[in-house]
Amino acid sequence: MTDQRQRHILCMKWGTKYGPEYVNRLYGMVRRHLGGDFNFVCLTDDANGIRPEVKCLPIPPLNLQLKPGQRDGAWKKLTTFEADLHGLRGTALFLDLDVVVVGSLDDFFTQPGDFLIIHDYPRFWRFGERIVGNSSVYRFELGAHADVLAYFRGHMEEVQKQYRNEQEFLSHFLHKQGKLRYWPAAWCPSFKYHGIPRWPTNYWRAPFVPPGEEGMLLGSDSLGRDVASGIAHGARISLMVGAVSTAAALLIGVTLTPGGSSMPLNVSVAGLVNG
Asked: Is-above-0.90 flag for pTM?
């Protein structure tokens, strides 16, 4: 089992798209859903407004040769694979700033595997084997995959031509090494694909918690109510109605039997015919 003193939560914030409130909210969700001690680290270019419990460290330079108008945002996460990331040691769980944590994170540190990532969600226009992972949530041993970043730095132009972004390159690189593993599908559902009602009902129905969340085995409905509890309650009412109906039918049948006999009418008729 992983030593809890060496557990790290990593996130990354740069530019102005996500403010410090995203980091602060993410810390609060992790603190609520991860038992034991951990270090919460934000790799950022601006630590202003971030709560003091979060350790802010600079994002390592990527040394990417950018073309005019090209953004390096699609590749920055690769810097988490530095051979020495600010002296951090142990197991790291990376979370995107827009992740919403609704259940326990404990098993994310004990699930077997060298490198674990979300299996990217299927698209109807994509065919063949799905290898690519979604890097919104991934776990690894700090310093263990420095070859990922080293290869990228040595083949930047080639990698950028072949792969759209860092998660596509990362997935194929580790897949070739036999190190790529995926989280159980129910652990990391997509808000876009699993939490929004289907069209056109999404125009009037509210988003919901997908199935498999802690305390909600089948998720919630559009009002946030536990679906499994609703099914159980409905089944109890149905059984009660069925029992009352059966009892009432028996009472009426006994009452209408000729001569006060409790024998059903159809059996009595059959006996007369056979005689």
From this structure: no
